[in-house]
Amino acid sequence: MAAIETVGLEREFKGGLKAVGGVDISIAPGEVYGFLGPNGAGKTTTVRMLVTLLRPTGGEARVAGHDVAREPDAVRRRIGVALQDAALDLLMTGRELMELQAKLHGFAPRDVRPRADALIDRVGLVEAQDRRVGTYSGGMRRRLDLAMALIHEPEVLFLDEPTTGLDPVSRRTLWEEVSRLKDEGTTVFLTTQYLEEADQLADRVGIINAGLLVAEGTPAELKAEVGIPHLEVTFADGSETGRAREVLTQFGELRPPQPGSDVSVGLASGATGVAPVVRALDEAGVIVGSLELVEPTLDDVFVEKTGRHLEGAGDDQDPDAAAGPEPA
Questions:
Q1: Looking at the chain, which runs of residues are DSSP E strands?
Q2: Positive or negative: CA dihedral 236, 237, 241, 245
Q3: 242 and 142 in one domain?
Q4: Is 203 inside a domain boundary?
Q5: How far apart are CA 188 and CA 182, in angstroms?
Q6: Domain shared by 162 and 262, yes or no
Q7: What pLDDT digit, counting tens, does each position of 124-146 carry?
Q8: Contact indicator for 50, 60 with CB cutoff of 8 Å
Q9: Which of 218, 246, 261 is where one domain is finished?
């Protein structure tokens, strides 16, 4: 049984505006599914239907085995939801919020504190647990919101742009938690504006545009659809270009080089094809200045499928990059 399944899912608003025009999705238990789409594409509307905040006007959707329209209470008991704008009481402490969440989910009084303790420790908020949430940084609030969404050990977790606006260290912390949840068998439905995030975390990616699912597959499959890796080559002596082009045509189709490169050639075999190219150039007496293997990206996929870049694509950065400590 799929953890999340939609068939012809639709949502039409007053005035005939169809925000979602028939979406079919099937997500396996334990899968991390990245859901991408430009603003206004129907991404948020789809998520709101799946978490029972918005009723579908057509089609059907089942989450954790229950129909979102006919069995919303059963769905809510089995899902966790961490929205981008966390509605946290800034005057309460982190511990108070965690214990309140446990009580709301029906935990026995003797189990409330141990459960709160476990999750506070899990998200790294032990030292800040007795401080008011209003003193927390953005990353700390996101971690607290995630812990609250996990209080009842949900089968399916919905994360709505969980790292938007966070510093690289905080992003890496949340990435590690998503990976741990996957290892534990939790299904994660992840919306994100960071293509690198989807590439790193998602088993499969779905792209929605104008209310329709326009692409779906593993990141590798989607990138393979829009092109193959290509090798950008520069030479120590520009006069070698003609001879090099003759050599490189044996390995793939020549393509317009990127700025700063002398020649570009497609390599269907990717990284494994670089060494033979280098040997052939050396045997031909061509002196190579530099080589760069350029892989297709999810941004290339997104542009081809939607006609535009994802809003946050230009903000992608390596979470391991140098960054100062998170403010308290």
A1: 4-12, 18-27, 32-36, 58-63, 66-67, 79-82, 156-160, 187-191, 204-209, 212-217, 230-235, 254-255, 263-266, 288-294
A2: negative
A3: no
A4: yes
A5: 7
A6: no
A7: 999 999 999 999 998 899 999 99
A8: no
A9: 218
- Please state, in angstroms and rounded to a whole number, the distance separating the CA atoms of residues 9 and 214: 14
Terminal CA-CA length for the chain: 44
| Token pair belonging to 31 | 């899968």
Same domain, 172 and 73: yes
- Our count of domains for the chain comes to 2
Select, from the ranges 141-155, 283-297, 305-319, the one with the highest average predicted confidence (pLDDT): 141-155
The CA–CA distances, whole Å, from 245 to 234, 263, 278, 291 equal: 12, 7, 13, 14
Contact 82, 166 (CB under 8 A): no
What distance lies between CA 278 and its chain's CA centroid? 36
Name the pLDDT band for 319 (thresholds 50, 70, 90).
very low
Task: Enter the pTM of the model.
Answer: 0.80
As given in the structure block, the two tokens for residue 260 are 């700063």
Q: Which of helix, strand or coil describes residue 174? A: helix
Dihedral sign for Cα atoms in the order 231, 234, 240, 242: positive
Residue 256 in any domain: the answer is yes
Residue 24, phi-psi category: left (phi > 0), alpha (psi -120 to 50), beta (remainder):
beta
**Residue 73 lies in domain:** 4-218
